[in-house]
């Protein structure tokens, strides 16, 4: 039974990492076709850390929160935090 739980966590972590890479492919491909997108290595590292960190935080929360409403609330708050941090880093919304 413990193996199943470990396998489920590994599967969730794998999904988060694959989704992070898929999302980061968007600006990587866009850079090939337009000069409007100009990301450096640091931008990809910070973006990857934000996306993966948020996803992994949700995986942890999902394991600890039993009710669906609680999971939705935590997921929404994590998504909001991610969007606010991304917007601040992108254009300095709060600056």
Rounded mean pLDDT score: 93
Describe the main β-sheet briefly. none
Number of strands: 0
For the termini, the CA-CA separation is 50 Å
Radius of gyration: 16 Å
Strand content: under 5%
Dominant shape: flat
Question: Helical segment tally?
Answer: 3
Helix content, binned percent: over 70%
* Class by alpha and beta content: mainly alpha
The helix/strand series, from N terminus to C terminus, equals HHH
Low-pLDDT stretches are none
Structure write-up:
The chain is mainly α and 95 residues long. Helix content is 84%, strand content 0%. Helix 1 packs antiparallel against helix 2. The chain is flat, with a radius of gyration of 16 Å. The protein starts with a helix and ends with a helix.
Task: Map the helices and strands.
Blueprint: H1 2-33, H2 41-64, H3 68-91
Helix pairs in contact: 1-2, 2-3
Key terms:
95 residues; mainly alpha
Summarize the structure.
This protein has about 100 residues and is an all-alpha fold. The chain is built from three helices and no strands.
């Amino acid at each position: 039974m413990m193996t199943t739980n470990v396998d489920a966590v590994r599967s969730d972590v794998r999904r988060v990492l694959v989704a992070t890479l898929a999302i980061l492919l968007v600006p990587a491909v866009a850079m090939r076709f337009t000069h409007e997108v100009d990301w450096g290595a640091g931008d990809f590292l910070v973006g990857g850390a934000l996306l993966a960190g948020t996803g992994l935080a949700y995986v942890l929360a999902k394991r600890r929160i039993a009710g669906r409403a609680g999971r939705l609330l935590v997921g929404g708050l994590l998504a909001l935090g991610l969007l606010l941090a991304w917007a601040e880093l992108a254009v300095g919304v709060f600056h």
